Structure prediction request, 93 residues.
Amino acid sequence: MSDAEFAYLRERAARGDEDAAAQLVELAGEREDAYELLLLAESGSTDAMDQRVQLATETGDVEELRRLEADGNRDAAEVLDDLYEEDPTDDGT
Prediction:
C-alpha cells in the first residue's frame, strides 16, 4: 500500500468510516506497528486496543502489557497473570 493510499485510509477512518478503521487496525497488526495501533486505540478503536495486547503478548513486551494494565485493560492484566502463573519468579525484567 502506498503512502498516499494509507493517508487516504487514515482520513476516512478519522471521518468515522468503520471499514477504513478496521482496515487500518488489520494493516497495523500485520506490520506490527505499535504506534499506529496506539493512535487508533486513542481514537476509540477497541479492535486496535485488542491488537495492542496481542502484539505485546506475541513480542513478549511485558512493559507494554504493564502500561496497558495500568490503564485498566483487563486483557493485558490476564496475560500478565498467566505469565506470572507460568513462572512466578519472573518479574518481567
Notes: The chain has one domain: 3-86. Residues 3-86 form one domain.
